[in-house]
Structure formats: C-alpha cells, structure tokens
Design goal:
The chain has 19 helices and 13 strands. By secondary structure, it is of the alpha+beta class. The strands form five sheets. Strands 8-9-10-11 form a four-stranded antiparallel β-sheet. A hairpin with a 2-residue loop joins strand 8 and strand 9.
Length: 622
C-alpha cells in the first residue's frame, strides 16, 4: 500500500502544473554554473548562477533531464552534470601521480558525457543543440585549468561541491535542456531505452500486463542519516530473494513497471524536499500527505501544527483549519464528536516514517486512514495530556520535542543538559500518538527517574505521567484508579497512592506556613522525603505526620491543614509498604493536583481581595 499511495500522489501532482513535480524522464536538479555558447560552439562566458543573497552561495534548483543514482563507475547525465563530466575539470593534488589520475578520470567522464549528448542530439535541428555539439567537439580537456574564463571560479571548482553546469546559447533566456526540441529528443531517447526490456511482467502498482519492469529503483534522498547519494526503498541483494528463475535480477522479485517506479520515487523525493510535508521524529524522518486535491495544503499544515507546533512552518488559519481545531478541542473536553463535525472527514491521509539502514531505507511506520480518524487520534492525545495549571499551560499543546526534552537532566541554570533523548523514543512516541496505542513505557519511567533525581514536578512532567496512566487504564481496562486521572483535583477518589500524594502536599504546605509562607525555607520536606514517600510510604509518613503536629501548632492555618489531613486519611486504611511504578505516578499526580488546588485557592482569594478593594475605592469616590 505504501508504493501505491505514493504513486497516486505522483499522479495527483503531475496533473497540477503548479506542483513543480518532475515529469517522466525528468527530475529536480541543482545548477551552479552555466556555459554560455556562441552559435559556433565557442565559450562566450562562464556564468555563476548561484544565489549569493545569504552567507553561503546556494545553487539554483531546476528541472533537468532525469539524473539517476551513480554509486560507482562512470554514469553521465544529459546536458547538466558536474564540472568533471561537462568540461573534464579536475583539481590539483600535492602528489603528481594523483593529479595525473584525476586528469585521466575527468577525461573519461567528459568523453562519456559527450557520447551521451551526441546520441541524443545528433538528429535535432536546433541552433542551440548544434552549438552544444560543436562545443563538445572542439573543447580541449587538457587545457581546462588554463582557460581564461574559468580563472575567477577556480577556487570554488577545486572544492568540488555544487559544481553542476548547464548550457545556454548566447541571446537566449532558456537553458538548452529546457528547449522543447531538446526535451523531445531526450524523451524519444529514453523511450527507446525502455522499449528494450530485459524482463516484462505485470506491474504490481498499476496492474498493467507485459510492461517493462524496473531492474533497479531510483534512490530516495532527504532521509536523515542515509547516504548522501540516496538510499533504496525497494532493493534485493541476498540469495533468499533469488527465486522463480530470477537469479541475480535485483528488483524483479518485486515487479514494478519503470513508469510506476519513476512515479513513486519522484513523489517520495518531492515530499522529502518539502518543508511542509516533512518533519523529524527522533531517529525517524516522517513524511505525510493528504489525498485532497482542493485543501491539501491546509490539511497538511494542520497536521504538522497539531503534532509538532514548534517545528511546523506557520500557516494562515482558514475556516477549514479552524473547524479541525474546534473538533480537537471538543474531544479534549470529553464532548461527543459527530461525523459531520469534521469537515472533509473522509479525505484520505497518509503518514510514512523512514530510517536509514545501510544503503537502504527501513520503513518504521506507515499509517493510512482519513482525516476524521486522524483528528480523533490527535484529539485523544490532547485529551490525555490535558492538565489544569495556574499558568494556563492546559491551553498549550505540548510538542513532541518538548515532551522528549523532559527526559533530560536539568542544569543549575534551569536549562536542559546532558545526553539527548534516545533516538528511538521519538519514533515510538509519534507512533503512539497516531495509532492511539500506549505511550512508550520508557518515556514514563524516564520522567519518574527525573522527578526522583531533581525533584522538579512541573505541569508537563505531570501531564506525561497522567497521559501514560490514562492510556494504560483504557487499553488494559483497569478501573481501579481511573477516577484519579483527571485534569484537576478529585477529592472523591479512594486510590491510596493518589491520596498519599495529596497528603504529602498538605504536610509540605503546613511546614511552609509555619515558616511564614512559601519561599521562606531553603529546603522543605519535599527535598528530603519526597522520593522515599512516593515509593515506601509506610517508612516515611508516620515520621512526617509527627513532624506536622509541630508545624500546625505554629501555623495560622494549622486547623485547616489538620482537617485536610483527616479528610485525606479517611480514605487510607494503612500506609503501603511499597508503591509500584503505576502508583508512584499516581502519588506524583495527587501531589501536583493538591498543590494546584492550593494555588487556585490563593489566586481566588487574591482576586476577591482586589475586587473588594476596588469596590471600596469606587464607593469612596462616589
């Protein structure tokens, strides 16, 4: 289904002239220099056409005659290629023997480039094509480094980076390979090549019978960590694939027609080159696309922003994206989502995750569904992460990057330090978001370990704990502590671990109030006892409760804290000797909820006091 979906993507793009996707027998390439020729083939100018507006010159991206992969050997491209092919250029070496070898290799590459150009253009009646053939016939490779028009560019050419060259006839605006007569000649040449097929069969993608089958598939470029020359998505190179008389026939055991092969590889390369359709998730490179022809850009931008808002390019909000966001908000709030509430909900949508694997690509993840399914999964993810916070954090959708960053160590300045999150964790998190499966257990345990290590209990860490436990209960049908997994404090839940977390927050509050308020103490019971209390309550809480009697006797609000302790302990028959990993998370959640409830009470009291003062001031003025 992956290749079929990509091929359909190519057909959709090819039908849209503004898509910029390459037609059959053409591809996207880069041009840094242009040889401007006279009609008799003499070199009139050597033009640098790179973009010099930034710190580093960047080559132009244009449509060129198809440039296949060339991992080894001499493989020339038609009319646009590196300097060593087009003009036989070579860089000097400190060793004379190495320079001689480079010169010899460049000459052979130039001759191969010339032979291909002659084969394609020999019958073309076009003044520009004849000028190219005349240039190739009279060009002296032996004196390439001495040519006066090249002297200003020698340092860049010697670096060997981005040296692709094209041709142009003086007085014409279009490059030679862009002329219709030249393009037609190239297409005829390639069609003649394809008509001579080593193996004809039924194409698995199109279903067509007796079509030329691609022996090798085009390289895919743009996957992070893969070879710069590209990697193969479909490739065979082991004896177990040699069956049915197809010994050493590479991709014939996966019969894909040459046209379909070009289509799916072009579509995938187009997606990987588009910032709108590509994102990084841990060690995965993710591409995604919509089957909608009318609103593809809006739908794709919405998905990117919903999954990773910090990494996505900003996009202007439309009525469609606004409706999709409203649908997610409804799911987050627990409201029912009807089918008609998701506009264009039956629009197909695809997500593909790739990772490098030597010279090949490994498919880590593929999701195929519709827009309605995708919105439901993203909404469920938002709902699972929803958490009340005094600073309004609940309204902000945490990106995958921010979630993973919480697994890192925090330095003395509050910034993340140390090793990056495990590469595979990002891919596992992304998969769980889109499939609605359990969040990675390693993410949950990493957050618990970070809380133990630095004692930081912030909204994002707690929301990760809540989200993991919420899905654990939903998937495993665990109801015993599901009622504790709410956005804010649930005083009615009887889950002991949750209540003990609340109790710890009350004891900490009592200590702070006895000292005159929060921020007066250099260290609280949280700094000394939190880890032990969350894992071995029976060993710690009797000591803390005894200490609290002294704190409450000195506190103005001691009676309030005493009543809160009694209310919480009414649901706890005894202190457990040990809390497992799930209940340690519940302890932290209960602690956070109770702390947030205190903050909300203080904020409400402050607002009421300000309102009363404003009303009194207004009354005095009247």
């Amino acid at each position: 289904m992956i290749i079929q979906s990509l091929y359909q993507r190519y057909l959709d793009l090819a039908a849209d002239p503004s898509s910029g996707v390459s037609a059959l027998y053409f591809s996207t390439g880069k041009i840094s220099y242009v040889l401007e020729l006279e009609t008799d083939g003499r070199l009139a100018a050597f033009l640098d056409v790179r973009d010099h507006s930034g710190k580093k010159p960047l080559p132009r991206t244009v449509t060129v005659p198809e440039q296949t992969s060339r991992s080894s050997g001499i493989v020339p491209f038609f009319l646009t290629d590196k300097a060593e092919y087009v003009i036989g250029y070579y860089a000097l070496s400190s060793k004379e023997a190495e320079t001689v070898k480079k010169s010899s290799d460049a000459r052979r590459k130039y001759e191969a480039f010339k032979d291909l150009a002659v084969k394609v253009l020999k019958d073309v009646e076009d003044i520009a094509a004849k000028a190219v053939l005349a240039f190739l016939e009279q060009w002296d490779v032996a004196k390439v480094r001495e040519h006066p028009l090249l002297q200003a560019h020698m340092s860049d050419l010697d670096k060997g980076i981005d040296t692709n060259i094209a041709f142009k006839l003086r007085g014409q605006l279009a490059l030679v390979h862009e002329l219709e007569t030249v393009k037609s000649a190239w297409i005829r040449y390639r069609q003649e090549q394809d008509s001579v097929s080593e193996y004809d069969s039924q194409c698995l993608i199109t279903g067509e019978m007796d079509v030329p089958i691609a022996k090798t598939h085009g390289k895919i470029k743009g996957v992070r960590g893969a070879q710069q020359a590209g990697a193969s998505l479909v490739s065979f190179n082991f004896r177990s694939a040699e069956s049915y008389g197809k010994d050493h026939q590479q991709s014939y055991n996966s019969p894909v027609g040459k046209t379909a092969m070009f289509g799916y590889t072009t579509a995938l390369n187009h997606l990987l080159a588009s910032p709108r359709n590509r994102m990084l998730m841990g060690d995965m490179t993710v591409v995604f696309w919509s089957g909608s022809k009318e609103a593809a850009e809006e739908v794709e931008a919405f998905f990117a922003g919903a999954v990773d808002p910090n990494a996505a390019a900003p996009v202007e909000e439309t009525s469609l994206t606004a409706q999709l966001k409203d649908a997610i908000v409804r799911i987050r709030k627990g409201d029912r989502l009807e089918t008609n509430m998701v506009p264009q909900g039956d629009t197909p949508f695809f997500v593909l995750g790739l990772s490098p694997n030597n010279a090949r690509l490994a498919v880590r993840f593929f999701w195929q569904g519709n827009l309605g399914d995708m919105v439901e999964k993203l909404g469920q993810h938002a709902a699972d992460f929803s958490l009340a916070s005094a600073d309004g954090w609940r309204e902000e959708h945490p990106s995958s990057y921010r979630i993973l960053e919480e697994t890192r160590r925090v330095g003395s300045d509050g910034k993340k330090v140390g090793d990056e999150p495990p590469a595979r964790l990002g891919g596992e998190l992304f998969r769980s978001i889109l499939l609605g499966t359990a969040y990675p257990y390693s993410l949950y345990t990493s957050i618990l370990n970070r809380v133990r290590a630095d004692g930081i209990v912030n909204p994002l860490r707690v929301s990760i704990i809540k989200a993991h436990l919420t899905r654990y209960c939903r998937i495993n049908k665990v109801d015993s502590y599901k009622e504790a997994l709410t956005m804010s404090l649930n005083a009615d839940t009887k889950e002991p671990a949750y209540r003990l977390g609340r109790l710890f927050a009350v004891l900490e509050r009592a200590q702070q109030e006895a000292a005159g308020g929060p921020g007066r103490l250099n260290a609280t019971i949280k700094d000394r006892y939190f880890n032990a209390a969350s894992s071995n309550p029976a060993a710690v809480f009797p000591i803390l409760i005894k200490l609290s009697q002294h704190h409450m006797s000195k506190s103005q609000y001691g009676s309030f804290r005493d009543r809160e302790m009694q209310e919480i302990l009414d649901g706890v028959e005894n202190f457990p000797a040990h809390l497992d990993m799930q209940r340690q998370g519940l302890f932290i959640l209960g602690y956070y909820h109770q702390k947030h409830a205190f903050s909300a009470q203080s904020q409400a009291a402050a607002e009421a006091k300000n309102e009363a003062a404003a009303a009194a001031e207004k009354q005095e003025q009247e």
